[in-house]
Design a protein that fits this description.
This protein has about 550 residues and is of the alpha+beta class. It contains 20 helices and 18 strands. β17 and β18 form a beta hairpin.
């Protein structure tokens, strides 16, 4: 054990591990990247996190920089949950649900709480956090907040930022910051503090005051993008009130280490009545989207058939409805969660009437229960469990925002990119918030396919620019996407993001390499040639 690990072991209540097996497990997340840490710290209290950060800060003051990377379930797909130096693993001990306040529907939790378990617990109080990610069975609430997560219901309920009320944050020097909405007068008092906290408030407020036009630009960007520190646009309101919470949400552990949070909840999730519509041609599916939106669904998702076929090829069965849609070119899943059953029945009746003379197959009722939909959604990931040791489908174009009027062009361009790069590209997406996912099939052991991976990322980034969309509309850019996504960002805006980072983390301790333009050579050195979700699943279970 190194001197640093030995010091931390003797000064915190939690544990420190330098076991090679543990380090190997923590060296990768759900991204295709890999970085071996020096040690893994399992904090038990906020004070453990404070002591770790304070010690690392003191080393940085002496010129010895060690990175700190917060980690939850490890389900991040951009490499933001891995890093050199110290991994702070919150899922082992700091996973408590402290209290629920039913009147305002607030829940106070630690970051290591499993997202699915949290919502199951909240259901006992007729509440839930609706912006849960699709990976909620593995993801933690801390990771969801760090990535400003979205999920199946985000088209109706928005992102995780909307549901995050207050945070307890350990700063890079070990001080603790409690975020909340401050009045103009309270902000003035914070600005006078001769502490690191006071310096942060002064710096962030000055950035906002100095860049009013850029802040307006960030606000427009934030509507569809998680790139950089877009939460900055929501920090200061016209009345002068000020809250750092929106800035911390989505910062991927680069501005502070969240150790506690108060989350807002919605009334309990209502059962969703699902219907699957199978279209013989993609054009027919596209023409139906506007009509389906008029039914005000809570869920509306599109699937091309490639992922379903991939699951079937691996022995999965999609009974009882797959037999009736085997010849489909695309599927739309639509779901209604209206409180009154009568309203849901009426919507379904009108939907069936609308398509009664169309060449579509509609499967509804008992044949499409939530379990069936879960199986369909799971089919998206079978490409990540390769059928051979050489083939994988890395998540390099996940969470693309496509303007609704450009969807047909986007689908056509996806086909052209598949031909250009001679690879299969499976596509699915959420039609209510216009977020789409495209997965290639690559053999990362081949240098040509590793080069192809970066070309695909670049091509999709350029495509989103041309269409007025966003290449990072879900989670964040992490380590993998920053170099490509930042190429289209106004340099003045990037300078604002740099100033925000420096205000919180002057020594570059917190998750360095995340939310920055990494060199291709560095990315290539970190790329896992044996990438698959099998390894990700193992690491998630263990940490």
């Amino acid at each position: 054990m190194s001197k640093v690990a030995g010091y931390l072991q003797s000064h915190i209540i939690g544990e420190v591990s330098t076991s090679v097996d543990v380090l190997r497990l923590m060296s990768h997340d759900a991204s295709p990247l890999e970085l071996m840490p020096e040690m893994v710290v399992y904090p038990r209290t906020t004070n453990d996190v404070r002591k770790t950060a304070r010690f690392v800060w003191q080393l940085a003051e002496k010129g010895h920089n060690i990175a700190i990377t917060p980690r939850g379930g490890g389900s991040d797909q951009t490499g933001a949950a891995i890093g050199h130096g110290v991994i702070l693993n919150f899922s082992t001990h700091m996973n408590q649900i402290f209290e629920y306040e039913p009147r305002q529907r607030f829940v106070r939790v630690q970051p290591g709480v499993n997202m699915l378990s949290l919502n199951q617990s909240l259901a006992l109080n007729d509440a839930f956090i609706p912006s849960y990610p699709s990976s909620q069975a593995i993801a933690t609430i801390g990771g969801a907040v760090a990535n400003n997560a979205t999920g199946p219901l985000s088209g109706r309920y928005g992102s995780m930022r909307r549901w995050t009320y207050e945070l307890e944050v350990v700063l890079s020097n070990g001080d603790v910051l409690q975020t909340k909405r401050l009045s103009k007068r309270e902000l003035g008092k914070k600005r006078t503090l001769q502490t690191f906290e006071g310096e942060i408030y002064r710096c962030i407020d000055d950035i906002i005051i100095d860049n009013p036009h850029l802040i307006d630009g960030i606000q427009n960007l934030a509507a569809h993008s998680c790139l950089g520190y877009t939460g900055l646009a929501e920090v200061k309101r016209r009345d002068g009130s000020f809250d750092l919470t929106p800035l911390i949400v989505g910062s991927q552990g680069t501005l502070g280490i969240v150790t506690e949070m108060i989350m807002k909840c919605a009334p309990t999730e209502r059962p969703i009545d699902y219907t699957v519509i199978a279209f013989g041609a993609k054009e027919q599916a596209l023409e139906s989207i506007a009509t389906l939106r008029q039914f005000a669904p809570s869920v509306m998702e599109y699937y091309d058939m490639s992922s379903v076929i991939a699951g079937s090829a691996r022995g999965k069965s999609y009974k009882p409805f797959i037999e009736s849609i085997e010849t489909a070119a695309g599927l739309i899943v639509i779901g209604f969660d209206d409180h009154k059953e009568r309203v849901r029945r009426k919507k379904l009746k009108n939907l069936l009437k609308t398509f009664q003379n169309s060449n579509v197959v509609i499967v509804t009722g008992a044949n499409v229960d939530p379990t069936t939909i879960d199986a369909l959604r799971a089919s998206r990931y079978y490409g990540l469990f390769p059928s051979s040791t050489t083939l994988s489908s890395p998540p390099i174009a996940d969470g693309l925002y496509v303007p609704p009027d450009k969807l047909e062009s986007f689908m056509m361009e996806v086909g052209l990119l598949a031909d250009k790069h001679r690879t299969k590209l499976s596509l699915w997406g959420r039609l209510l918030d216009n977020v789409y996912y495209v997965r290639p099939e690559l053999q990362l052991k081949k240098a040509s396919d590793r080069h192809k991976l970066y070309k695909l990322v670049d091509d999709f980034t350029q495509l989103m620019i041309a269409m007025g969309g966003a290449s990072v509309a879900e989670a964040g850019e992490g380590r993998l996407l920053g170099r490509f996504a930042y190429a289209a960002v106004d340099p003045a805006l990037l300078e604002v993001f740099t100033r925000v980072k420096q205000a919180f983390d002057p020594y570059g301790i917190l998750n360095p390499g995340v939310k920055t333009a990494n060199d291709i050579k560095d990315l290539d050195a970190q790329l896992r040639q044996d990438y698959s979700l099998i390894q990700f699943a193992n690491s998630s279970v263990c940490g």
